[in-house]
């Protein structure tokens, strides 16, 4: 089939749901429209669930079980997918991130995931578990995916990574002094890589700081650009030029206003000297 998207069931519970849906549909020789007619949905909706772009609702999962005669198999898988710690839209972003030629990040308050040490990431996840925001299983899911994302940066050719960190990222202690010291060392070492640029947006920027929320911009091998943003409930991968280009322009303005990489690394090392 032309342009048939490969599915990775290990990526998330939603991906496992989608992979099983496609597998059983293929076994019966049904098209997405055939299955849609049996379930009372559109073929577009079936495609979105299969590829992880939409989570399976309880009604959708129950309809799939009726269509395939699978008892409560999809109902149980759907419950696991809905209990995932990953926001809707995030798996789709990750699938593009591992292909990107250039990755641009801006973060407020915490170190971006791609630059986190395992101990720093574990401290963030443990804090979310203590607050009751996620379960221990969901925390493990987050950490496993983060490790895969970080490992993907070692591909050849390596992606260019541009990271602008608000000063608050460096000054907010996460996991205690030792964890923070190792994290600052990690940032300084990361800045020395030939494919990275790290800058700090100092507090002095004040209202001139271009963004108040985290920003993720991906430049793909064909030079197309995507932007990913999150709300409290879901993530959204944006491909429309009229939405993405203004974000890229604002990012370049932010880089121009931020400290140089040399000055940023100096700040990181000065803060590091203040930790054990």
Detail the topology: elements first, then pairings.
Layout: H1 13-27, H2 32-39, H3 43-50, H4 58-68, H5 73-82, H6 90-97, E1 102-107, H7 118-130, H8 136-152, E2 160-166, H9 167-171, H10 177-191, E3 196-201, E4 215-219, E5 225-230, E6 235-238, H11 241-257, H12 261-273
Parallel strand pairs: 1-2, 2-3
Antiparallel strand pairs: 1-4, 4-5, 5-6
How would you characterize the overall build of this protein?
By secondary structure, the protein is of the alpha/beta class. The chain has two domains: 13-82, 434 Repressor (Amino-terminal Domain); 90-113 and 152-273, 2-Layer Sandwich (Endonuclease, Chain A). The chain has helices at residues 13-27, 32-39, 43-50, 58-68, 73-82, 90-97, 118-130, 136-152, 167-171, 177-191, 241-257, 261-273; strands at residues 102-107, 160-166, 196-201, 215-219, 225-230, 235-238. The chain has a six-stranded mixed β-sheet with strand order 3-2-1-4-5-6, sandwiched between helices. A hairpin with a 4-residue loop joins strand 5 (225-230) and strand 6 (235-238). The longest helix has 17 residues, at 136-152. It is elongated and about 65 Å long. The model has no long low-confidence stretch (mean pLDDT 89).
């Amino acid at each position: 089939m032309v342009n048939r998207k490969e599915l990775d069931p290990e990526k998330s519970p939603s991906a496992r749901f989608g992979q099983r849906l496609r597998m059983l549909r293929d076994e019966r020789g049904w098209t997405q429209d055939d299955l849609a007619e049996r379930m009372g949905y559109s073929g577009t909706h079936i495609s979105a669930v299969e590829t992880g772009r939409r989570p399976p609702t309880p009604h959708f999962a129950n309809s799939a079980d009726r269509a395939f005669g699978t008892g409560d198999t999809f109902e149980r898988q759907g419950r696991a997918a809905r209990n995932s710690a990953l926001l809707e839209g995030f798996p789709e972003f990750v699938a593009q991130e591992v292909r990107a030629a250039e990755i641009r990040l801006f973060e407020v308050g915490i170190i971006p995931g791609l630059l986190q040490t395992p101990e720093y990431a574990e401290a963030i996840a443990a804090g979310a578990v203590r607050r009751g925001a996620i379960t221990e299983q969901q925390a493990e899911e987050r950490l496993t995916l983060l490790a895969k994302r970080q490992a993907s940066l070692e591909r050849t050719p390596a992606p260019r990574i541009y990271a602008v960190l608000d000063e608050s990222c460096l000054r907010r202690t996460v996991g205690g002094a030792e964890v923070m010291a190792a994290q600052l060392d990690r940032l300084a070492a990361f800045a020395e890589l030939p494919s990275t640029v790290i800058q700090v947006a100092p507090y002095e920027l004040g209202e001139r700081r271009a963004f108040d929320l985290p920003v993720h911009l991906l430049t793909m091998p064909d030079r197309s650009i995507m932007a990913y943003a999150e709300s409290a409930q879901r993530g959204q991968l944006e491909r429309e030029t009229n939405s993405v280009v203004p974000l890229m322009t604002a990012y370049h303005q932010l880089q121009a206003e931020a400290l140089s990489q040399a000055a940023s690394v100096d700040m990181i090392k000065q803060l590091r000297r203040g930790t054990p």
